[in-house]
Amino acid sequence: MINNYLIKGNNKIRDAIKLLDSVNRNCLIVIDEKKKALGTITDGDIRRALLKKKSINSKLKDLCNKNFLFFERNYDIHKIKKIILNENNNINIVPILNEKKNIIKIFTIQSFKKKLFKFNKKLSSIKVVIMAGGRGSRLHPATNVLPKPLMPIGENTLIENIMSKFERQNLKNFIISINYKKDLIKAYFKDTKKLNLKFLEEKKPLGTAGSLSYLKKLNSKNYFVTNCDNIIDVDYGNIFEYHKQKQNDLTIVGNLKNISIPYGQIMLDENGKFFRLKEKPNIKILINSGLYLIGKKAIEIIPSNIKFDMDQLIRLSMKKKLKVDVYPIEDNSWMDVGKWKEYRKFSKSIKI
Question: Which residues partner with 130 through β-bridges?
Fold first, then answer.
């Protein structure tokens, strides 16, 4: 398989075009006679070279991208996976090189997508619950007219942007908990003819977890539960694997957030006496992202038809000796768009 991605530097542009076409690839690794990696050549590189009047007989070693991405033997497979599957990177191939720059392994977008597809078949059975019953007070006055889930972001609504993150990983069965302006939300999704969608209708506000008691009659073992103001771009398969491996009943997804304090911190010793001033310190804290993976046992203990918040469910789960754990994600994977500043920031990024 590796040989399908290799071409010698003395070969010409015409040879690269033939090989790219025959093996249905868009990137090759250019090597020398000793199989040392010299760089990469893509169909885009070839088009640009021809537009610059380069000959079809130009040698690849003179045209290849020598500043290419590669990893050495002690590579991080999760880091490579994240790079390749991020469409914005436009990277389809990552070679692993030894100390002499010889290729010992190649990771491609095709290999990861095959594994991802197999695993996503397991994810497809998990239902995603979106808690969309709140009034969206942080987005007033707009939410006096539109419910927060239907606030526009780009060409879609806020809730559709949230759903798309799950749908990309084959999580396509949605349950939306609704209360405030629920008729508008139901009417919107009736018009869009969204498949695999059900509603939990609160007759009165039931807090951030109360409506989950309606799930007791369903047979699902686990549910992803998310607030309706979180845009989270993570590998849900990794969360699911962690939840299963740890045998958790409730997994809280925690966001590892960097906080810069714009003031000098006065440091005291153990006797309460001043000993130094620390200028504008940075601290890392783990905050609740508003995303959870909740098992059947935790769902069963939620009281019916009373206001019940997620922090109460977490405390009750621990009191009843259920397994509660935290799965941390990086700060840049999470955005709270329930506030105007972040809402506008995310809206701008979608337009770009």
Answer: 176, 226
